[in-house]
Each structure stands twice: as structure tokens, then as C-alpha cells.
Amino acid sequence: MSFDLFYILACLAVLFALFFALGPDIRARLGRKKPSSGTLPLPLLLGILVLVPLVTTMLYLQVGTYGEAEIDDPRVTQLRAQMIEMARDLERNPDQPEQWQRLGLIYKDLRHYGPAEHSLRRALYLRPDSAFLRVELAETIHLRSELPEMPPQARALLEEAIELQPDNLKALWLLGTNDFLTGNYEKALTWWEQMLPHVPEDSSMHRAVENETERARDRIRQQP
To answer: Which PROSITE patterns does the annotation name (predicted)?
Structure first.
């Protein structure tokens, strides 16, 4: 459905609802009957019929979820086509951890965190020894929660990932960031220092981790 058609149908739907709500007033006016005491004044009636659809449309254009830009994005269109193919493939053969992983990561990339979590859980069920899947699932759960602090389940997944893969940089970074956020600066420093030997010294990531370790040390020194 094009945006113009959607726009027209939305306006018609609002007008249709108003007609039912204001039916007695409209019929009284069209029948040229003398307005009863409960009938809205004509200027107010006309104002409602004009302004409500207009204001509704303006609000929708500001905060609506139709996503015209998303529909016109070739990358999003391509991802959705891939998702349809993967979903059909998984329907025929659901025991494919690679496909569940790909599907989960695409959902995550599109910020559809509910389906992303489901797909990544399925992939992890089929591949329980994967540190990578634990980290991606943990981050998805955190993003879905929309909370500053990481949910306990997400943190547990990250710690399991570190047990499986002690040099998993993303898991170490996320754990350090969460501990710093919650005021556990010593633990955050430990995670970040564990990262440094595995990051090239001339990289921007190494400099970023060093900066965070310095911030953690400063906070530790400031503690009473």
C-alpha cells in the first residue's frame, strides 16, 4: 500500500468515526430541524469535522509508525526478502542453527527485538556451546528491556560466554560497561583490563578501552 493511499484511508476512517459520534447533530442539521438543547452549535460541529482529521493526520505524520522511509530503503527491502526465504526454509527444516542465527541477527539489526530474541534462543538451543550466540542474545535481551542496567539473565549469558571464550571482546566490553554504570568500578576495571591484551595497540578500540580503564581508576580513587 502506498503512503498516499494509506493517508486517504486514514482520513476517511477518522471521518467515518466522527459521523457515527456526531450522527444526531449532523442529521438534525441536514434535516433542517430546530437544534435541540443537546445539539452542538454549528460552528463547533464544523470545527470538529475539520480540525479532528487535520490534527490526527499531523500527529500521525510526526509520530506515526507507518515508516515510509523504511519502506523506501532498499537495504530494508532486501533484508525482509531474505527473512521470508529463511522463514520458509526453517519451516521445512527447523534444525538449522545457522539460519536461526542469521534470522535473529537481521531482526536485531532492524530493532525487532522480540522476534530476534526468539530466533537467537532457538539457535542457542541447537548450538549450546556458542559464546557468540550468548553474547548476541544477551545484548538483545538488554535492548528489549529498554533499561539502563542489564537484566540478570543477560548478564548471566555474558558471564557464560566468558567462561566458554575468555577473550570474547564484546562480552568483556558489555560487562565492563554495565558494571561501570552500576557503580562497580573495580569490577568494570577488571573486565576492561582483561580486554587490552587481545586488542591491537594501534587501534581505536585499544584507545577507547584505555580511556575507560582510566575513568574507572578515577572513580575508584574518588571513592571514600
So the answer is: TPR
Q: Do 170 and 203 have their domain in common?
A: yes
Do 104 and 119 meet the contact criterion of CB atoms below 8 Å apart? yes
Are the C-beta atoms of 150 and 173 separated by less than 8 Å? Answer: no
Number of domains in the chain: 2
**CA-based R_g, the chain, Å:** 28
pTM above 0.70, yes or no: no
Do residue 142 and residue 116 come from a single domain?
yes
Tell me which DSSP letter residue 66 carries: -
CA pair distance 133, 107, nearest whole angstrom: 14
Q: Which residue has the cell 554495565?
A: 178
Q: 149: which 3 cell numbers?
A: 542496567
Cα 210 from chain centre: 30
- 25-54 pLDDT per residue, tens: 555 555 555 555 445 455 544 554 555 455
Question: What whole-number distance in Å separates Cα of residue 196 and Cα of residue 193?
Answer: 5
Do 129 and 164 form a contact (C-beta atoms < 8 A)? yes
* The three three-digit cell numbers of residue 43, written as one number: 460552528
Give the closest residue to 100 by CA, choosing from 128, 115, 119, 116. Answer: 119
Q: Which residues neighbour 107 within 8 Å (Cβ) at sequence distance 6 or greater? A: 83, 113, 115, 116, 119
Number of H helices and number of E strands within the chain? Answer: 12, 0
